[in-house]
Specification:
single chain; alpha+beta; 3-stranded antiparallel beta sheet; elongated
């Protein structure tokens, strides 16, 4: 184990190193993972145990503690892909962070990932987060969507990962589940939020870096309720509705995202078919929802 300490000599993070097999190639060995050190008074929950990349009220983030190494990295002139391909050629903490987080592991990055993806990225059995180039090229089975989003003059890339290196994340189908519940009338738009019948919000709290994400409960309920949503004709209408606005050449990025989410959800619920056919009538009701600078069109089925 390798410890990462703050300026008061208190261990904040602990790096668990991999154990490659005796006949394995050390250069291609895994890059370990990072866990938050349990301390008295620290609540043991996901929100408090997740890796804090930025400083907050609970203490320094990992980026602050690693500034000396980042200064070295800046002088190396290395491409981030070189660290991913040969991680053991680089300082332990730097290679682990880059291997686990990709571009999201660099300070001042314009890339953001969902809480779910970040949570899984620090699971020791998880391959980490894909590079943007891997998502674009579908390398290592990477499937997802990159949403360009401008806020206060800054453009960021909001990444939704569906799968990477055979490891499911499910950002798209979780968002598709939210669209599905609204489409079927099991959710409604009230007080500026999409809520289920118990009036529980289905989207996570909006932030400037990620304004449109499914809530953490969505990922859990999604798997629990899979069989309940196996309604092929309705799934076909869902996909057709969002295809109409998300597949054209002039479609907005957020409409393309909703189309990708609807398709991912439908294919996951009904895996018997390689592709869900677009069929049935188009919805006559569209609800406009605005989150920050994003304007989202929500379809409601009439069938």
């Amino acid at each position: 184990h390798i410890g990462v300490y703050d300026d008061r000599d208190v261990k904040q993070y602990e790096i668990m190193m991999p154990s490659p097999p005796p006949d394995g190639d050390l250069i291609l060995a895994g890059a370990g993972t990072i866990r938050v050190v349990e301390m008295r008074g620290r609540v043991v929950s996901y929100n408090s145990q997740r890796i804090r990349l930025q400083d907050d009220e609970r203490g320094p983030g990992l980026f602050s503690l690693l500034q000396p190494l980042y200064a070295i990295y800046a002088t190396m002139g290395e491409d981030i892909r070189a660290i991913r391909e040969h991680p053991l050629f680089y300082p332990d903490i730097l290679r682990i962070l880059i291997t686990r987080l990709g571009e999201a592991g660099l300070p001042d990055t314009d890339v953001s990932f969902s809480d779910r993806a970040l949570e899984l990225a620090f699971d020791i059995n998880n391959p980490g987060l894909p590079l943007i180039s891997e998502l674009k090229d579908h390398a290592r089975g990477a499937r997802g969507f990159i949403l360009p989003h401008s806020h206060e003059g800054e453009t960021r890339r909001i990444v939704y990962i569906e799968e990477y290196a055979d490891y499911p994340v499910g950002d798209l189908k979780a968002l598709g589940w939210v669209l599905w519940l609204f489409f079927t009338g099991e959710a409604e738009f009230r007080d500026g939020k999409i809520r289920d019948k118990q009036l529980i919000p289905l989207l996570s709290e909006s932030t400037p870096t990620r304004p449109f994400d499914a809530s953490s409960d969505a990922y859990r309920k999604l798997n629990e309720e899979r069989d309940r949503h196996r309604r092929l004709a309705t799934l076909q209408r869902l996909v057709k509705a969002y295809a109409e606005r998300g597949r054209s050449e002039n479609a907005s990025p957020v409409n393309r995202l909703c189309y990708a989410a609807a398709r991912s959800f439908a294919k996951w619920v009904w895996p018997d078919q390689p592709e869900i056919l677009e069929n049935g009538h188009l919805p006559g009701i569209w609800q406009e929802m605005q989150i920050g600078d994003l304007v989202i069109q929500l379809a409601r089925d009439e069938g």
